[in-house]
Here is the input.
Amino acid sequence: MLDWKGLLKWSLSNTDGTQKKDIKPMEEKTKQWLQEALADYALQDIKVIQEILQELAKEELNNNDDEEKRINLLERLEDILDSLDMADSLYQIGGLVQMIKLAQTSMYPKVQCLCFSIFITCNQNNSYVQQWSIYEGAFNFINTILNSKNIKVKEMALSALSSLCRGENLQSKRDFIDIDGVEFLVKIINEKESFSQRMKNKAFLFLKDLVFYDDRLHFTYNNLDAFANTNAKVTKTLNNESVKVNNQSKNNDITFDQNQELKKQNEDPKNKKYRNIVKNKLIQMNFIQIHINLLHDFSDIEQDNRVNYLDILKNVVIFSNEIKQLIKETKKDALKKNMLDVMKLDQQDKGSNDFEIQLYKEILNEIQ
Here is the structure.
């Protein structure tokens, strides 16, 4: 068990919160004790998680007591995962696979929603967990969205699907596109009678994210900062001038980059087809023309969607001369009028429409 009293005593003895003390390196013995205490704490949580998963694996009994028990177990699991970064551990002990299964098959909607919530916590901006979740069949959440009779379950399933693909994991976006994910999001936006307003909002946001990364979808890595020149470092001369000095004394080529080969691999030929694929799909589906009337709806409920649509429109206009010309010839005056109307709203709402106005200006500037 973790020695909480000992940890508290050590913490209090090393700071009084009022006086500045000389900071000294932690003694090796103290460091080792602290590491062991934290490791023991994490191990205890793993054991608790395993016990929870064992209980959840039992057959559902279709009664209120069983439902309440499972809800309590999942809430406890969620608390543990929220307090510690244990997404990878949950996957490694089979818990994430269990969440994927329960989210789709449980007879209790509240249990399904909690499983989706835990799934989202684990997948958000975690490319390792995202890819394994896809491998374990998480894209089947689409079937839950299409077939569930519970609107809250449908909404949570869409949020879970979004958590798989949002962020800098370009491979997950490509995988989603391969299963006609763009078409699926457009379906949600188009079919108002089948999906809730919240789902429409989520679909617009998801689609905007795909468009944002669209011109980089052929890359292996979205961010090349990790592959900066690792063989050279910056130092100061006596004259305080910054110069590069090679880390390897045997190599005098300070421009050498030991990750150059990895950089070359960043544009994999097999991924070339994905570059700008989302914008091309939207153009083929006439998405821009079909939904431009959304800009005439000034209700608060559609404000986020107006902004997301404008963001998508801006990127498509920059990409396609054909769409640019079409918007210029048929919608330029309407866009100007809409912008003026939004400016009036902005004065009433004290700046809540600033970003929307900025997007209008950028689009109008682009089609001049």
Q: What stands out?
A: Residues 288-367 form one domain. Confidence is low (pLDDT under 50) at residues 227-254.
